[in-house]
Structure formats: C-alpha cells, structure tokens
Amino acid sequence: MVCSAGLLVVVLDCAGQLTQRFPHLAKATLDALSDFLLDPSPTLSRLNRQLRRLDKSRQEIIHSLTAQRGTHSDPYLYGLPSQFAELARIERHVVYYQRVLDHVRGAAIQSLCRVLLVNNGLIETFLADLSRRIFNAAEGGRDTNLMYLNTVYCLGHMGVELADVPHTQELVLQFLQQNLNPSKLLPELEVSTLEQLGCMVIAGCVSTSMLPVTQEHSPGCVPASVQFCDQMLITFAVNRF
C-alpha cells in the first residue's frame, strides 16, 4: 500500500496533465478522480483506517498514563518505559501515514482542479455530483469521515486554484453552507474547514476585473459583489462556534 503510493501519485498527476493536452478527456477524467476521492479509493480507505487504528491506540495509552498519574504525586513514578516507547512509536507512524495520505490526496485534488480549469463548464456538474454523494452518505459508514474530509479539501483547493474563474468561489461557499453545515460536519473537520476558508481568503475573492465594465463606483466605495465572498467567509466561520 505505502510502497505503491509514489507510483499512484505519478499516475494521478499524469491524469491532470493528460486532460490539459487532450481536453475532450476532461469529463471522463473528472469522473475517475471524483470516484477516487469520494468513494473513496481502496488506497485512501486503508490509509485512513490505519490512521484511525493508530489514533485509537494512542488514546488508550494516554488514558492509561493519565489514570496512573492520578495515583502518584511524583510524575517520575507513573507510567512504564515501554508505554512511553510505544507512544513514541505510534506518533512516528501517525506522522508517516498522514504524510502519505496527504500526498496522495493532494495529487488527486490538484489534477481535478486542472481538469476544471481546462473545462470551466464542468464546475457546476462536479458540485452537483458532490452534493448527491454527500446526501447518499448521510446515513454514515466507516469511510464517511474520509469522504467529508476529502470534500472539504477539494472545495478549498477549488476556491484557490479557480479563484480567477467567475462565480466559482461563490458556488463553493454556497455549497459549504448548504451541504457542510455544523449539524452535518463531524467535529474533527471543523479545523480543516476553517483552514480551507482561510486559504480562500488569502487567495482573494471576487476582483473588480470580474465586474461589468459599465459599472461605476464612487471613490472609496467597495462594490457589494466584491465584498460577497469576504462576508460569506466571515459569517460561515463565526457560525461554526
């Protein structure tokens, strides 16, 4: 699984480059990348489950150490060396597997954004398919958390990579509000969602170059459409707490 991750990253990267050279393959490539990220693929699924197992083991050790600490006044008297060694080993594995998962997922998302840049007309089609998948996954499953996390990262990258495509950021933010509100999101995704929203702010929202040429503005006045994304981002972030 881990050994083939490097080859998988190359294949995913080539999928995006292939569409740039042969635009007529955009729809087929988009469907394949969507399935890879949102089904999700066996590789992503196994990496995610391994991370969850490691996290569960880590929490058990931490809970055990915390319980032992309560019975000793001297911090050097609680906990066995083997427990600390096992905790350090688990931490190393968590960092390693998380890095692999992020690398593979990032390659797929980057290629997906390349496809959407080649054919902007597929953006709304992709968001509609994404909404359908989220609705069908609402009942829950062992990989639901991974699908939601992949969705958040994918939307965040779209908001950054496609920032110059008119109305894309508005569509992304509306999707987040309608389909990934706090009542549907898992608590562990809160930080990731806000992180992606921050990246979209840094990337810049609707610029004046996208506004109608005939529109006139008074000096010092920021058009309402320019403020739209910023207002939605702030409102969405505040409502999460």
UniProtKB/TrEMBL annotation:
Domain of life assignment: Eukaryota
Leader sequence residues: 1-16
Protein keywords: Signal
The protein, known as: DUF913 domain-containing protein
Upper classification of the organism: Eukaryota, Metazoa, Spiralia, Lophotrochozoa, Platyhelminthes
